Amino acid sequence: MALRALDNTMPAAVEERPKKVAKVAAPAAAVKSASPGSGKKQKKKNDENSAPRATAAAGEQAVEYIPSEELEAAAHPKAKAAGLVAELDSKDWIRACEALNDARRLAIHHSALLNPILEKVMLAIVKTMKNPRSAVLKTSIMACTDIFNNFGNLLSSVSDDAFDKLLLQLLLKASQDKRFVCEEAEKAMRAMAASMPPLPLLKKLKAYVHHANLRVRAKAAVAISHCATRMNIEAMKEFGMSVLLQVAAELLNDRLPEAREAARSVVASVHGAFAKEAAAKGKEEEEDAPDVAASWESLCSLSLPPISAQAVAKIAASSQ
């Protein structure tokens, strides 16, 4: 038997088996497109690029925001007033926008026709202010501005409930993150504070000083400051000067600078009216100044805790 040579040579290489290639799954979209006749119908995704949304966006861009001074009188005002509430309640948002502009026309040019149905119109506008469509929302706030400007004492024409609902919506819209909504709502609130009697409006706004939403508190504080600038000493006394100082002192500790600045404005208005009343008594200005300062400090100390009284007195001294 022949012996194999004992060396370090390896046996002849065995032919390697071919390696398996990993199978890669085809994308689901490719599989579905490759077999158009197989399987169920695929549902279209309802994203922002779909046709219905694009059409709605185009329609919303077509809505024109007409400035108040460019709104012309209604062609048939009596007919518009008769069907206004129903049109405002329309599910067609374009018709709702047209109805809101009709309400603006009636408020500006035909206020006598709008006055008998004003409360129903206000409640319908409050409903449109909750609409998610930007066009309806902005037009509804513009309608509020025109109604404020043309119905000075709105509280004499509508119930407390209707006005409270409107005021809440304006404060909420003025507190939103959408800039165009905030600006329009702030404009409406300025019109409200400038046109309505300050005393009844101040009584309504006072409730929002304790609102849980700090932005709502700040917007209410700004409106309160606007009311205070229009109030004379008699109106302040009727509301309660101590109460007004307490409201201002509470807002001075608020988290938002807007509320704190409004509170300082309220203190300055109260102090200005207080000093004006003292000066109207006919005394000399040099003799009056120490007495006014002492009387003011006495009012603050009687109305507020010591720390708050010092803060309010300091603001009044710096505003002189």
TrEMBL record:
Family matches, as SUPFAM superfamilies: ARM repeat (SSF48371)
Residue stretches making up the TOG domain: 64-306
Residues covered by region (Disordered): 1-59
Compositionally biased intervals (Low complexity): 23-39
PANTHER family reported for this sequence: ARM REPEAT SUPERFAMILY PROTEIN, CLASP
Protein name: TOG domain-containing protein
Native source species: Urochloa decumbens
